[in-house]
From TrEMBL:
<keyword id="KW-0833">Ubl conjugation pathway</keyword>
<dbReference type="InterPro" id="IPR015943">
    <property type="entry name" value="WD40/YVTN_repeat-like_dom_sf"/>
</dbReference>
<dbReference type="Pfam" id="PF00400">
    <property type="entry name" value="WD40"/>
</dbReference>
<dbReference type="InterPro" id="IPR042238">
    <property type="entry name" value="Rad28/ERCC8/Ckn1/ATCSA-1"/>
</dbReference>
<dbReference type="GO" id="GO:0005694">
    <property type="term" value="C:chromosome"/>
</dbReference>
<keyword id="KW-0853">WD repeat</keyword>
<comment type="pathway">
    <text>Protein modification; protein ubiquitination.</text>
</comment>
<keyword id="KW-0539">Nucleus</keyword>
<comment type="function">
    <text>Substrate-recognition component of the CSA complex, a DCX (DDB1-CUL4-X-box) E3 ubiquitin-protein ligase complex, involved in transcription-coupled nucleotide excision repair (TC-NER), a process during which RNA polymerase II-blocking lesions are rapidly removed from the transcribed strand of active genes. Following recruitment to lesion-stalled RNA polymerase II (Pol II), the CSA complex mediates ubiquitination of Pol II subunit POLR2A/RPB1 at 'Lys-1268', a critical TC-NER checkpoint, governing RNA Pol II stability and initiating DNA damage excision by TFIIH recruitment.</text>
</comment>
<dbReference type="InterPro" id="IPR020472">
    <property type="entry name" value="WD40_PAC1"/>
</dbReference>
<dbReference type="GO" id="GO:0000109">
    <property type="term" value="C:nucleotide-excision repair complex"/>
</dbReference>
<dbReference type="GO" id="GO:0031464">
    <property type="term" value="C:Cul4A-RING E3 ubiquitin ligase complex"/>
</dbReference>
<keyword id="KW-0158">Chromosome</keyword>
<dbReference type="InterPro" id="IPR036322">
    <property type="entry name" value="WD40_repeat_dom_sf"/>
</dbReference>
<dbReference type="GO" id="GO:0016363">
    <property type="term" value="C:nuclear matrix"/>
</dbReference>
<keyword id="KW-0234">DNA repair</keyword>
<feature type="repeat" description="WD">
    <location>
        <begin position="240"/>
        <end position="281"/>
    </location>
</feature>
């Protein structure tokens, strides 16, 4: 129906795109035909897919190892394994000594990526030579770092460490002198706004989420308050908290208008990022026992948008704006630490303590034959990523 409406010019072409992406996300299932080569000997803490082609994925593990995978099916066979192109293994002279907590591609090309670790360093890697182009050292454990996906006038990497000060490392000058002060305990999560290149969100073990404008001398724009100012008027405690526990996960929606936070109080909250208001969406209990940063993901280009949140050994899929729990993706044998969304094909990848990376892809549509002549045609075996994009089904979900 959507195809016909689009062809006849009755419908906006984008509507078919939104509907199809949403249908694909709602039908995510464990891919039985695609394996990700198992390289890590211990738990996987972090994953990142490069935003340029959506083809290469980085993973960082508890043993300090970083692996780069090619997600494309080069064999063109229905069943295949995503091969590891290379890894920074234990024998590499510049390998991280302890657990890698965050890996991130340089947002504009695949020639560079970044990694940070419990060994108190942030490393800037040249992808081609696998040598560090720069290394930043900190006084405490590094929990999280992030580069702005939209910045054009600065090259700052925000770093959350055991210190309550948020560190800003400048790739242009190689200095890490800029700091943002305001938190009282370690900073577990940092995320730049995808809308405003100077706006940064940070989450700390002190239960607070702060929004900063890094151009301002004072830095802090606001401290998010879960009660929207209702309670602080009456209580002597004037400090605003976003969660009643450690805040260990932050993720902006793709348009940057909302911020999703997660805390060890087993709550997830959605904030209006311009007003700082708690939107009071109820997600129910979101089980979160992680003592460090938790990496979760939000879909892109769907209606409504979905959040993919590690939940014990499963991944919970919520609608972002209504808080509805859509499904639980089961497949891992142990705690899931991270997941990353691939927006081009609406795929999800998750990393767990069980040393596995699993690929979740949209279920294929069952073809609906138009007439008897089609039934006699042999079924062509297409790449599963493209197969359901060319179906003739009217079914939307």
């Amino acid at each position: 129906g959507l195809m016909a409406a689009r062809q006849a010019g009755l419908d906006d072409p984008a509507r078919l795109r939104w509907a199809e992406r949403t249908r694909r996300v709602l039908s995510l299932e464990l891919n039985k035909d695609r394996d990700v080569e198992r390289i890590h000997g211990s738990g996987i803490n972090t994953l990142d897919i490069e935003p340029v082609e959506g083809r290469y994925m980085l993973s960082g593990g508890s043993e300090g190892v970083i692996v780069l995978y090619d997600l494309e099916n080069l064999s063109r066979k229905p069943s295949y394994t995503c091969k590891a192109l290379f890894s920074v293994g234990r024998s590499h002279p510049d390998v991280h000594k302890f657990s890698v907590e965050t890996v991130q591609w340089y947002p504009h090309d695949t020639g560079m990526f970044t990694s940070s670790s419990f060994d108190k360093t942030l490393k800037i890697w040249d992808t081609n030579t696998l040598q560090p182009a720069d290394i930043f050292h900190f006084e405490g454990t590094v929990y999280s770092h992030h580069m702005s996906p939209v910045a054009t006038t600065h090259c700052l990497i925000a770093v959350g460490t055991k210190s309550p000060k948020v560190q800003l490392c400048d790739l242009k000058s190689g200095s890490s002198s800029h700091i943002l002060q305001g938190h009282r305990q370690e900073v577990l999560a940092v995320s730049w706004s995808p809308r405003h290149e100077y706006v940064l969100a940070t989450g700390s073990a002190d239960g607070r989420v702060k929004l900063w404008d890094v151009r301002r001398a004072s830095g802090c724009l606001s401290t998010l308050d879960q009660y929207n100012g209702e309670k602080s008027k009456a209580s002597s405690e004037a400090v605003n908290t976003a969660h009643n526990g450690r805040v260990n996960g932050l993720c902006y929606t793709n348009d940057g208008l909302h911020l999703l936070t997660i805390g060890t109080d087993d709550r997830m909250r959605l904030w209006n990022s311009s007003t700082g208001e708690n939107t009071l969406v109820n997600y129910g209990k979101v089980c979160n026992e992680s003592r460090k940063g938790l990496k979760f993901a939000i879909s892109c280009g769907c209606n409504p948008e979905f959040a993919f949140v590690p939940y014990g050994s499963t991944i919970a899929v919520y609608t972002v704006f209504t808080g509805e729990l859509i499904t639980m993706l089961r497949g891992h044998y142990s705690t899931v630490n991270c997941c990353v969304f691939q927006p081009h094909f609406q795929e999800l990848y998750s990393g767990s303590k069980d040393c596995n990376i699993l690929a979740w892809i949209p279920a294929l549509r069952e073809p609906v034959p138009d007439d008897s002549s089609e039934k006699s045609l042999p079924q062509q075996h297409l790449n599963p990523a493209y197969e359901d994009a060319w179906s003739s089904s009217d079914d939307e979900g």
